[in-house]
Design goal:
Elements lengths: L1 H11 L10 H8 L9 H13 L26 E6 L4 E7 L17 E5 L2 E2 L19 E6 L8 E5 L4 H24 L18
Antiparallel strand pairs: 1-2, 2-3, 3-4, 3-5, 5-6
Length: 205
């Protein structure tokens, strides 16, 4: 794969002089690293480091679709959490609109505490992300929230967590909403705000 990437750039790059960079030298520099890679993703990092030497925009290599079918991924609850060391718990600082916790039956709001995930207590500073990996037996997550940092009076809700790509989209939509509100406030409603997203697949128009 490394040699294929090197040949593709050598014979298909628009500038036969490779922006003045020695492409043979690039091969000699990066090829010895290939024997130490553990998977395709590390190999892509090496290839992209090599391609980056010629300093050309919109060039690079990536693993094809479906390559991560069996990979373990991490889900997201659709809330922002902050560690409250005094309380010994994670506190909800933001609930994303249209996210998995933005439902009537979840009843969570900023200021509430995350008590447990699937019955396992979540304490401040703990790595709760491993509880949200894709190798779980069930897709749905049983989350326990409370208005205070204790189990007394807590409530439980089952939610469908979202992917990190979906979480990124929610963050983007929040960012646009906040910028629009700032413009409206600072201009007294006289200026409109429109953000045109990039052409990446993670953005919707």
């Amino acid at each position: 794969m490394f040699d294929d990437a090197w040949r593709t750039m050598k014979f298909h790059f628009y500038d036969p002089k490779m922006h003045g960079y020695s492409w043979d030298g690039a091969r000699s520099k990066y090829q010895p690293l290939v024997e130490f890679v553990a998977d395709k993703y590390e190999l892509m990092n090496i290839i992209n480091e090599m391609i980056g030497e010629i300093n050309a925009s919109h060039t690079g290599a990536a693993v094809g679709p479906g390559a991560r079918e069996n990979a373990v991924t991490t889900s997201h609850l659709g809330v922002e959490l902050q560690s409250d060391e005094t309380a010994g718990r994670y506190r909800v600082s933001y609930v994303y609109e249209d996210g998995p916790c933005d439902k009537d039956w979840v009843k969570v709001k900023a200021g509430d505490y995350l008590i447990a995930i699937d019955g396992a207590p979540v304490l401040a500073g703990a790595n709760y992300w491993k509880m949200l990996s894709s190798d779980r037996l069930n897709r749905r997550v049983l989350v326990t929230f409370n208005s205070k940092p204790s189990e007394d009076g807590a409530w439980k809700s089952r939610i469908d967590p979202i992917t990190m790509a979906e979480y990124s989209q929610l963050r983007y939509e929040r960012w646009v909403k906040d910028r629009r509100a700032d413009v409206d406030r600072l201009s007294g409603g006289k200026i409109g705000y429109l953000h045109i997203p990039g052409d990446g697949s993670a953005r919707r128009s």
